Amino acid sequence: MRPIREYAPAFALAAVLATALPVPSQAQDRAEKPVSSAPEPGDPETRRQMLNARQAQAARQQVEANRASQAHHEAAVALNGMAQERNDALYSDALTANAQARQQYRETRKQWERTNPYCWNGDAAKCPADPLPPASGS
Predict the structure, then answer these.
(1) Rg (CA), the chain
(2) Domain encompassing residue 100
(3) Which intervals carry biased composition (Low complexity) (predicted)?
(4) Within a domain: residue 24?
């Protein structure tokens, strides 16, 4: 470990620099900022009317944009509703077709079982193939 005497010159230099550099105070900062109390050039009433007209025009444009956006949204919702109704109808038709195909297969299978007692008696030579199940995916 080094003795403190070796660091003494560095501490002395840091202390001199710290006292030599000016530190700005908050009072100086406030005093340096210019405060303008002079009136703006031109007629303030004319300027106010001009700014109000600009703001009113911007408001009208915003209202029109909002109306267009609302109309677009309502059209999209209506299209989505129609697509959903169409999809629901297609799904319902597919379920009905599937139920009918399954019912037809059950009836065909029962008829096949009644007309082919050989299969139940273990005579594989006289037993015809099972009826085909309904086609899947249609």
Answers:
(1) 46
(2) 53-116
(3) 49-68
(4) no
Is 29 among the domain residues? no
The amino acid present at 11, given as its one-letter code, is F
Number of domains in the chain: 1
Question: What is the C-alpha separation between 103 and 97, in angstroms, rounded?
Answer: 10
- Residue pair 131/105 in contact (Cβ under 8 Å)? The answer is yes
Query: CA triplet 39, 43, 47: central angle to 5 degrees?
Result: 100
pLDDT in tens, 99-122: 999 999 999 888 888 888 877 777
Which two three-digit tokens encode residue 42? 């031109």
Residue 129 identity (one-letter amino acid): A
Q: Are 115 and 108 in contact (CB under 8 A)?
A: no
From the centroid of its chain, how far is CA 128?
59
